[in-house]
Amino acid sequence: MSVIVLKSGFVHYEVLGRGRPVIFLHGWVGSWRYWMPALQAASTTYRAYALDLWGFGETTKNPEQYSLGEQVELVNGFLNEMGMGRVVLVGHGLGAVVSLLFSMRFPEVVERVMAISCPLEEKAISNRFRTGAPAALAEWLLPGSSPLAESIRLDAAKADPAALQVSMNDSAALTIQRLWEQPELACLWVHGQNDPAIAALSSQRFAEMPEHIHAILFEGSGHFPMLDENNKFNRLLIDFLNLPSGESPRQLQLKEEWRRRVR
Question: 6-29, pLDDT tens digit by residue?
Fold first, then answer.
């Protein structure tokens, strides 16, 4: 287990591989742990980091640090402390929101973003997220009873419920669609068709997406596409990471037999 000190608190992270940096940020349920298969896939050619955000996993729990702004500052502090330049961000749920907000604030640092199970606006989030305890939400959303799923459930129980609630309250002011006004930032939007927690974008919103944003629907997935369809997700992840700098995700040569492209 690796940690760094930021704002007198400990930030836990795990890292695999060598090469250009990729940062994985977890969602409202769980911790860094459910990224392990994706970390292993990415680490063959990249240096892959997975962080625990404030209030989750093994990172310090301090209610003063649970706002979306403070989570963005955690990412900024981590990159500065580790001496990183431009990075790719891969975020899920809360981590996707933090990734996009970070990209809006520090566009010069972010090469591209994969946003998974990300709400475009506050009303896309299930009300159950506002009342459920982290452990109960894990039971609701996690697939199956594999050893990895059981480990994630244990980590979910470590989360401070206030960390989830504060970020939920902040989400009422989400302005994620501002991302569409930043043509220099490539973004791949990934969503599970059967996600009960975060509503997928409407057909109209898909149609409004500019050239630098692409959306893919995983038809066999719920809230955790990286677990529900692990092999398919990792193939997409590697294709995404291998895109030349500045190239739109719409240039990905996606495999028709396992995905559906939504425009």
Answer: 988 999 999 999 999 999 999 999
Distance of CA 7 to the CA centre of its chain: 23
Give yes or no for a contact between 129 and 28, defined as CB atoms under 8 angstroms apart: yes
Q: What's this model's pTM, rounded to 2 decimal places?
A: 0.93
pLDDT per position as a tens digit, 63-104: 999 999 999 999 999 999 999 989 999 999 999 999 999 998
C-alpha distances (whole Å) from 134 to each of 160, 172, 212, 233 are 8, 20, 34, 25
* Structural domain of 229: 2-262
Q: How many domains does the chain have?
A: 1
CB 44 within 8 A of CB 18: no
Helix (H) or strand (E) holding 113: strand 110-116
Check residue 52 and report its DSSP letter. P
Q: What CATH number does residue 183 fall under?
A: 3.40.50.1820
